[in-house]
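Re: the request from the purification team.
They wanted to know what the chain is likely to look like in 3D before they choose a buffer screen. I agreed to run a prediction and write the result into the notebook, where they can find it.
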Amino acid sequence: MATPPVPGTGMPGACSGPQGQAGREVNTASLCRIGQETVQDIVSRTMEIFQLLRNMQLPNGVSYHAATHQDRQGKLQEHLRQLSVLFRKLRLVYDKCNENCAGLDPVPMEQLIPYVEDDNTKHEDRSLLNQLRLANEERREIVEVNKNLKLKNQQLKQIMDQLRNLIWDINAMLAMRN
């Protein structure tokens, strides 16, 4: 998966020279996209590394070919080097995103939604809040009653089981007497 060049990263394929960097300013959204693609590349490289490790045989003396082992070890080292490069690229993208977002103040989401507020809305909000509070208290009461009801049902079941056993014993005694 090819990622577009990131100015100032020093990575292969990055714009070189001051003209390339000045001509293309990367915004935070595209940096995030580049970061996402880099993470996907990291995951795919890691999967390839695990595939190589799974297929690699240990040199335990059984059909050991030094050339094959060296070839696989070289591939593994190359994948690890590429993974290291991708992590450095991700760190640069992360730092650049943090740098771009450093001056931004977090804005509550309620302020991002435009709406006109009047006195009726405030009153409706308060009544809705009161209804919500009452419904929450009622729900708590229902949960408590259900818990007590389950406890009583368990006690009644135990009593019924004891009575059933007692009746069984009485019937067995009467049967033995006859």
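For the purification team: The longest helix spans residues 119-177.
Please add any questions underneath this entry.
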